[in-house]
Structure prediction request, 124 residues.
Amino acid sequence: MKKPVLLSAALLLLVFVGQSAQSNTNFRVQVNVSPSDIKTYSTSTAYRGSLFGGLMRLKYSNQGFNFQYIPYDDYGPFLQSVNGLAGNSSYYWQLLSGKTPLDVGMGCYLPTANEVVTLKYTKI
Ligand code: B12
Ligand SMILES: *[C@@H]1O[C@H](CO)[C@@H](O)[C@H](O)[C@H]1NC(C)=O
Prediction:
């Protein structure tokens, strides 16, 4: 007698879990200007959101992080400056996950939970 009730409750729960929004992805951003000038920040992006989203949230979170970008039609935003330090003809802001350079820009990259994404001021 109680079984159909339990079964419907279980089905409702499954439907709810299946359709509910997934939680945000928390990750960290390390700004590496030089070995003696490294700062780490915490941020988040939407579920399967972009690194760009995480940097925008970080900028708005008043942790003292700022950045500027140049939009490119094909590849999305190019990271031009971080905390006032801009790239030029000899240096650029390289994007890495741990020690591995990303093979896409910040508009295409989807950070995973607890990942450390590094923005490294690097000689071209
Ligand atoms: C040269 C080059 C660079 C140079 C550009 C400056 C220079 N000295 O010329 C430097 C070293 C700065 C660079 C950096 C990066 N690059 Co690059 N780059 C290239 C490359 C080899 C040629 C581009 C080019 O000269 N095109 C010809 C000119 C005439 O066209 P253009 O539109 O004016 O080219 C400009 C844009 O391509 C822009 N650019 C270059 N790389 C990137 C990356 C992104 C995300 C954006 C938005 C713009 C951009 O700079 C070019 C010169 O002004 C291409 C691959 C290829 N063979 O096309 C990869 C390529 C465009 N880069 C790529 C990547 C991933 C990056 C980085 C994210 C790598 C990293 N891990 O840090 C960084 C950008 C980080 C940031 N600050 O946002 C990817 C983009 C893929 C994608 N879908 O996002 C490509 C396709 C290589 C790949 N992995 O397949 N890059
Ligand atoms: C690029 O910027 C770096 C860091 O500010 C500076 O040391 C370098 O001289 C600049 N290079 C050019 C070509 O402007």
Q: What stands out?
A: The radius of gyration is 20 Å. DSSP finds two helices and eight strands in the chain. The pocket of 2-acetamido-2-deoxy-beta-D-glucopyranose (ligand 2) is lined by residues 88-91 (CB under 6 Å). The beta strands are 25-34, 37-45, 67-72, 76-82, 85-86, 91-97, 100-101, 116-123.
